[in-house]
Structure formats: structure tokens, C-alpha cells
Amino acid sequence: GMKSFGRLRVRRFYTWRGNPLSSNRKLRTHEYEVDGLPRTTVIRTGQHILIEGDDDDNPFAAKVVRLFGDESGQQKKAVVQWYVRVSEVPPSKLKLLGRDPHPREIFFYQGGNCDDEVNAESIIRPVQVKHLDADASFPPSDDGDDDETLYVKLAWDSKVFRILDSALVASPPRHPNPSLPPSPPRSPPAATPASRTSSRCTLPTPDPTVLRRAALGEVRRSRAAASAGKNPAAMERGRGGRGGGEEEPGVLSGVPHASFLDPNAEEDSEEGEGRRGDGSWKTLAGGILTSSPLSPQNAPGTPRTPRNATPSIPSRSLPARRPANVLEEARTRLHVSSVPESLPCREQEFQDIYSFVESKITDGTGGCMYISGVPGTGKTATVHEVMRCLQHAADTDEIPPFHFIEINGMKMTDPHQAYVQILQKLTGQKATADHAAALLEKRFSNPAPRKETTVLLVDELDLLWTRKQNVMYNLFNWPTCRHARLVVLTIANTMDLPERVMINRVASRLGLTRMSFQPYTFRQLQQIITSRLNKVKAFEEDALQLVSRKVAALSGDARRCLDICRRATEICELSAAGLVGMSHVMEALDEMFSSAYITAIKCASTQEQLFLRAVIAEFRRLGLEEATFQQVFVQHQALCRVEGLQPVGVSEGLAMCQRLGGCRLLLLESSRLGVLQRVRLNVSQDDVLYALKAD
Amino acid sequence: MSKRKLKNAHLPIGECVSQVLSPVSPCPCRHLEELLKRTAVHGESNSVLIVGPRGAGKTTLLRCVLRELSKETEVQKNLLQVHLNGLLQTDDRVALKEITRQLHLENVVGDKVFGSFAENLAFLLEALKKGDRSSSRPVLFVLDEFDLFAHHKNQTLLYNLFDVSQAAQTPIAVVGISCRLDVLELLEKRVKSRFSHRQIHLLSSLTFPQYLDRVRAQLRLPDDFPDGSFAEEWNASVKSLCEDGSVDEVLRRHFHSSTDFRSMHALLMLCLSRVSVAKPAIRPADLLDASRLCSADTKVNMLRGLSVLELCLIIAMKHLNDVYRGEPFNLQMVHNEFKKFLQRKSNSMYNFEHPVVMKAFEHLQQLELIRPVDGSSAKTQREYQLMRLMLDHSQIMEALQKYPQCPTDIKQWAASAFA
């Protein structure tokens, strides 16, 4: 049961209490002062509430600004002022706080760009929010059972934290009976008995514990019912103490409220049990690796990867040397890793991607784009450049803020790890693949209220292919969810990946924008190098042109082009010439692209060369491109006699054959077959003869 | 460490490296040294492949370069090294653990690495990503048997290493060592694009005098040898040994067969092992013996240990091979052929019981002198299972020559089909 992370959904029903204050005819809505069922949760304006969101452990917090409904009374809504929990602030921005946040700290949300209308059904319950002065300290994090109180000190506008005025947080006068703990919202009358437990269960517990507890609750309740029958006073106390319990549809009318015999005691024991259950469950399943202080104790002797470990390569003991001359400077600039000031030759693609993402961010909608192109055509670089520019625009308030994350199919061990990485980069949470998928699904498909647009870059998309294609399906499906506000940019090498791999349902969702990056032409390559060198005069003009033309003809891969140039500067340095000229480039090209087969044949020993001759002779005799070692060996013996060399034995011949096979001049069968193994040439016969003749 | 490495270790660096010089790329040593130095000193990421046949000195070249570089403090204090071998790290999971262990990243306790495969990869990539050109210690990754890494699933490790080598992250140098000339073709196109395409080919075409010089250099004692007079005597004896006519012939034969270091060392080690206090020099006869040992045919040696019956069965198989032009045979056919010989020509041999012949046949199969034809089902009765002979005729004839007290009629029978 470890894999079922779904919670029993609690359905709440709210009704209006009191008469509408005013009605807005244009919007055909009524405004109410107070709503909610009598004797259950009452929600008022100005109150702080918890709202259902992606994360059951940390529901959204907000303050009710206004409550209203439509004319038919079907839809009940609330306008709220949002708070942000620590987990909702991007981990990178959390550093701005300059201290460790308190676990129950929240921030007054002042960023715009967020839907502040919520459905009444998503309100979980009221919550207490305390304002603390900027220099006040937080109370200790575990100070009892009613520790739902949240603390607010600062305001957050998605860029900076600010000191918050306490007047903004001030709650209205509290509930008529302030000593009461906030009671949970009503369960629907038709719910099964188990839902009573679950509706109360706001603890961060997964299914197994819930179920176990539900069972325990049943037992306890029946026992309580029995005792209640005997002890009406206790029943009375239970009733009176709470100022009215809940109706229990499943319980006989004779003892309707027996379950609330001693609610506090029950709550206590459940609380403790729930926590214990929590800790152990986390350790066992490893599903959510929160920094629970219990887990190391529960699993002694098994050191785990420290959660917040920051792995790093040690730093240098001696500083790195800076480039000292023109050639070294050029080499630094030509390294593929150096980020150029601008990306030449991809202006159109840049513009297209930029406007695509920008429009999605400003509209608050989602979408996806498929980018294809052979390796080394600047796909990832262009997208990164776009994101840099958009980030800059967001920083200067030209567009709403957004969240950019990036995954790469090649940088994970399994397609399903994509979920884990996305979740971790979004929320900093660690989870197993299945759990992460469930959480993400919920995050993107639920009409959760507040969200910045998320831009997700998926590099090497084809690696995320699975037989059921669910990873790819989700990546393309999530942006189509109305509330997801997700922009997915996918990159792969093949243009027809959508057609080849994404059958039916996936392909049908790809109402996507496509873009393909063409291999660079020689002029573009030349421009790329020139712009990278940026007036550092290290190359002759002809040399650059040669490199560009050569690479454009071969692949149009900019990386290749840069690598050749870099190698050419090294050769130039060795030959002590000032500028990189044609000869240096030629040598670099030769080194990188010339096949070594012919040289290898020329460098082989006399007998090995003779063996290759024998192979060809035997092929000609057989009229086939394949022969057994035994057949070739006969030819070899004959050739030895012709050449006046001492013939070699079979063992030696086999060893020779293996050597030629080892460097892949020959292709061989398994060496266990001995003299019976079949031999083929891995080079053309003409090449072999050419190499042997020139000798 | 092998004896060979030890022996090389006492050679001066220049000499050692000159031994692996090849005419193809005039200074592979220089190229590699410069490249690693730039990684260590400037923090420039690089990738390079050293390709050459087995025994060409690829590892030696790298060792020499590293030894030379470690003399410079700037390199010695900065460069971290990770050595992987495709034969040991058979998949990326194992390779990642080994890298993490050798780099002493945080998820290492003692020598044990914790975390799942996915976590390890994320961990390593995170660590490499955090670094940058000017502040992190550069890491040298040596991938021996590089071609085997290309067979790992998705080439994840190679992609990531090459990707880091082309990104503004921790400076790394990836040095692949492979004996396959077609190693680049094994790389997936994305991986290939990220590889810098620098290749150092170690292909040496030696002339015989050069080969002879090497032999002399390998046998020579260095000038700083403690016992000076012995060294002098020894070096003189080595010199005269190399001038001997029969030695020249033996070495020439070896040179024609293979020019690599390893076979030369195998030969010289056999000679050296015969040197003793009583006999403080290598004699030409030692070299001849060693050469004979080196080039001895293994199968012939095995045949010499067979019983006469087993030898007869081998001869019968040889005849069947001649008659049916290499078609496979079964035990029944071989036994019939053997019986024909007994009836017609034999005067020294008599017939054996069927089970005895059967046993001999099985023994031959165990020795892998014969092997069942591929795809012949195991259900077939033993006598009728089709077999092939894994010997060449020349090996059988040679074995018969060397077989102790081989009956003459059997020798004649073996030779008879040559008519």
C-alpha cells in the first residue's frame, strides 16, 4: 500500500448564513456577510483560512477579503489575500531572507498576477495567524498540539521581502466562543463512517496510517458508544464542552453524539500516534525525505545521503592562470563552454521562442513547443539565451515573474526520474518517481489558485520515451490544463519524433508549435567564430573560411568548428607562428577527420600485412567477403613461402588475427571458435591494397 | 604493477617517450602533455582519445606524461584524478560509484558510496556543475578500454562527461584509451558532437634496427646501477648477444610477427629468468629456447598429451574432413573410419569397446579439440551429434612428429591421405 499516495478526498459543503448584503447586478452575484452551516465552521470576512492546494501537508493560507456567490446559489466563492508559505518561495529566493525560515512562517503576498478568487469548497478551515514584529523572535517550533498557528513577519512580492504592517494582518473579533478549537468542516451526510476520521485528519499522514487510524477510531468509537450508554453524564459533558458536536448518520439515533465523549483526549492520542506513524512511514518507504529528525534514529547504521548536502569539487590550491597571449586568449574564447555575448545567426529562432514564451507568461496560459535540429546547432544555447532575456525582463517588471526549470533526458538514469527532477526543481521536495508523478499531476491539474508561470525546458526529449509513453504524455498534457500555467519547451534531434514516437493520444495533444534548427551554413559558422573572437586577431581570414567550409560540408556542427579552431591555435603555438594559417588548420582537420586505418595497416608487422593479403586472396578465391581463419591460414602459409619468410604456426597465426581484430581492421567471430572462426575485413579491399602497395 | 612497467620506470623520461613516438602525429607526448597542463593550470576543459593497437604504449604514454606533469607543483597540487576501466566498471551504475569514491564526494563513508543510481548521478552532476573554471580543482578522467563505455545504456556517462567538458562547469579532462580504430563510430551522435575529436594515434612503424635498439635498451642496466663492474660486464654481454647471428635471426622472426612491446617483453623475460649467479649473462641458446617457447603451438602441445586411441580418432576425423571437404561428422562416422584403418593397415592397434571410444570422444570435446555444430540439438543421441574438428592439418602432423613413441603405422595412416 506504499504506492497509493491518494488521500481520501474530503468534500465540504458550505451554505450561506444571513442575508446578502448587496447584489451586483452586472455580475449577477450576491455578497454575503457570513456563510457556513450553523454549529460547524463559520467563515467570515477578515478571517484567516487554509485553502486546499497541491500539498496536503502545507495547504495554502489566506485571509478572506470578501465572500460572494452567484444568483443560483450554486457557486460560492471567496476573494482572498494570499499568504505564501516557506515552501512556496523558490529555494533560490529564500536566500534573500538571510536566515533560516521558521517552519510555520508565512509571508504576506504582495505580488500581483495571481487569481485571488477561490471556491468555497476548497476552504479547509480557519487558522490563526499571528503577526510578529520584525525583530521579535519566533516561538519554539513544537509548543504543543494546537500548533496550527502561523506567524507572519514579512511581505513577499516575488522579488524581495519587506517588513509588514501589522494592520494588514489584523483579524476581526474572533469566533463567539474563542476557547473552542476550530472545528472541522462538515462531512457530507452520505459519507461512510470512515470519512469522519479522514475529514478530521488534517495531519500529514499518508493512506496506511489513515486507514489504520480509521480502524482504531472505529474501535474506540464503539467502545465509547457503549460507555456513553452507561454514562450519560459523560455524554453530556462531551456535548456541552464542545458546544454541539456533529451528526453521525451512521450511528443509531439513541446515542447520536457518543463519539465525542472526550474529544480532547482522543485528539491527543491521535495526534501522537499520527506523528509516530508519520516518522516511521517516511523512513520505511523513503517516499518523502523531509528533514524529519526521527528518521536517522529509526534507521541506525544506514547513513543516507545527507539531504541538504552540497556536493562540490574542492577548490584549487593555486589560482588558475589567465590567458597570457593572443593565442591563449583566442583559445579561451573559442572554447565551447565560453558563453558568448550574443548568439549570432539564430536571431529568427530566438525571436520566435522569445515571443512564444513571453506571450504565454503575460497571458498566464500554457503551451508547448517542439524544437528539433542536429547536434551542435545551438538549440539549447538559444533557449538559454531566451530565458536569460526573459528573466531580465521579469526583473525589470516588464513581464510577470516566472519560474524556469530545466531537465535533460540524458542526465537521468530512467525516464521516470524526470518527475523526480521536475518536482525537486519546482519545490525542493524529494520523492520517489511515482510519488513525484502524483504530486505533479495534482499540482498541474488541480485548479489551485495562485501560481507563477512555470517554464520547463526538456532537453533530449527522445530519451524520455517509455513504452507506455506516459512521461511524454504528461509533459505535453500538463500545459493543456487550464490552471497549470506551464510552458514546456522540448528539444530533440529528430524532426519527426512526434510522428515516430508519440502515437495517437500524445500526438493529438501536440497542438504544439514546432521549430527546427537548420545546420549552420559556412557563412554562419564563419560569423560565429568571428563574433566569438571579437576582434582578437589570431586567425588568417582564409584559415577561418577553410574551417567553416569544411564543417558546413560535413555536419554544420558549431562545436566541431570551434574545436578545430582551438586545436589549430595549439598547432600554431607549437610551430611558433604568429597567426593561425591554412597549414595549421589543415593539420588540425587532418588529425581529427582522417581515418587511421591506412596508417594502421602500414604500421602493422610484416606477418600481419601478409595475413591481410591472405584474407584478400582467399576472398577472391571464394568470391565471398568472408572466410574462416583456417582457409585464410592456408593462403597465408603459401604467401610466406613466396615471400621467403619462415611460416608461422597456427597459434601464432591466431594471435596475429586477434591483434588485427582488436584494432578492428578485421571483424572476427568469438575467439572460442579457434581455427573455425570467420574473418571479414572492416576496411575496403582497395584501401588494404593501397596501403600495402605504398609500403 | 607488471615487470614491464617497472622496467620502464627506470628509464629516463625522454627515452621512454621516444619509444612510443610514431610518425603519424609527430609529438603525441607533447600534445597530451600540453593538453593536460592547460586543464590543470588554466582550467580549460578538454577531451581526447588515445588510440593504438594493444601493446603500442598508450597507457605508458599517459603515465609518462602524468609523471612529468606531477613534477610541476602547479599541476600536482591542483589536478584530481579519476581512473576508470571499461573492464571493471561494466555499467554506468558501477562507474558512478567509483567516480564518487575516487573524488571523495559527500555521499562516501569510508570506501562505501551511498544512494541510488539516480541519486549518484544527480549528485555527481551537481558537484561538477557547481564548480567553475577559475576556482575548482580540475579533474582528470581516464577511461581505459574506452570503447566498452560506449556500450553502456544510452552512453549516459560519456554524454555527461563530455557535456561537462564543453560547459562552463568544473574543468575536466577526459582521456579515453582504446585499441579500436573505429571507436568514434561507436559514439551516439549527441555524444560524438560533444567530444572534441582530438585523437592521438599511437601507430609505430619500426624498422628492424630500431627494434634491435629497443631490445638492447630494455636489457641494458642503467649507468647508476650500484654494482658498476657487473653493469659493465652485463652491458657488454648484451651488446655481443645482439650481434650474434642466430640471435639476429630469432629477433628478426619476432619482429616480422609482431612489433609490439608486450611480445618482445614476454620473449626477453623468458631469457632473463634463466640468468643466475652461476650464469650471469644471457646466451644465444637461451634466446632460441625462449623463442621456441613463445612460438610453440598450444594445440600441438595438447595433442602430445593424448592417448593413442584419441590420437587415432583425431586422424580419422582429419580423413573425414579431407573426404567430405570440412563437412561436420559424428562419432559413428569417426568410429567407422577408425575400424577401416584397423582392418586394412593396423598391426599395432586393436579394436576398442564402443564405450571406450565414446569416452575418448567425450574427452576430446572437453579439451575443445572438437566442438558440436551450432544449433545441433542437445537431444540428439551422443553418437550422432554433429561435430567439427578445431585443428588444422599442420597441427596434427606436427603433433605426430613430436608424439613420444608413435607407432609407425599410425604415422603412415595419417600421412596417407596427402597423396
The top-level CATH class of the largest domain in chain A is: Alpha Beta
List segments of chain A where confidence is low: pLDDT < 50 over at least 5 consecutive residues.
1-10, 24-38, 173-308
Which quaternary structure do these chains form? heterodimer
Which structural category fits the helices and strands of chain B?
alpha/beta
Please state how the strands of the largest beta sheet of chain B are arranged side by side: 2-5-6-1-7
Which blocks of ≥5 consecutive residues of chain B have pLDDT under 50? 1-25
Which series of helices and strands of chain B comes N to C?
A: HHHEHHEHEEHEHHEHEHHHHHHHHHEEHH
CA-CA gap between termini of chain B: 54 Å
- State the domain count of chain B: 3
- Look at the structure and give the mean pLDDT of chain B: 86
Q: What's the CATH H-level superfamily name of the largest domain in chain A? A: P-loop containing nucleotide triphosphate hydrolases
Which second-level CATH architecture of the largest domain in chain A applies?
3-Layer(aba) Sandwich
- Which fold name is given in CATH as the topology of the largest domain in chain A? Rossmann fold
Q: Explain this structure to me?
A:
- The complex is a heterodimer of chains A (695) and B (419).
- In chain A, helix 21 crosses helix 22 (629-643) and helix 21 (606-622) runs antiparallel to helix 24.
- In chain A, strand 5 (60-70) and strand 6 form a beta hairpin.
- By secondary structure, chain A is an alpha/beta fold.
- In chain A, the strands form three sheets. In chain A, strands 1, 2, 3, 4, 5, 6, 7, 8, 9, 10, 11 and 12 form a twelve-stranded mixed beta sheet that branches. A five-stranded parallel beta sheet of chain A has the order 14-15-16-13-17, with helices on both faces. Chain A has a three-stranded antiparallel beta sheet with strand order 18-20-19.
- Chain B has three domains: 24-201, 3-Layer(aba) Sandwich (Rossmann fold), CATH 3.40.50; 208-296, no CATH class; 300-418, Winged helix-like DNA-binding domain superfamily/Winged helix DNA-binding domain (Arc Repressor Mutant, subunit A, Orthogonal Bundle).
- Chain B contains 21 helices and nine strands.
- Chain B has a five-stranded parallel beta sheet, sandwiched between helices.
- At the A-B interface, helix 8, helix 11, helix 18, helix 19 and helix 20 of A face helix 3, helix 6, helix 7, helix 9 and helix 10 of B.
- Chain A: This is Origin recognition complex subunit 1.
- Chain A: GO terms for molecular function: ATP binding; ATP hydrolysis activity; chromatin binding; DNA replication origin binding; metal ion binding.
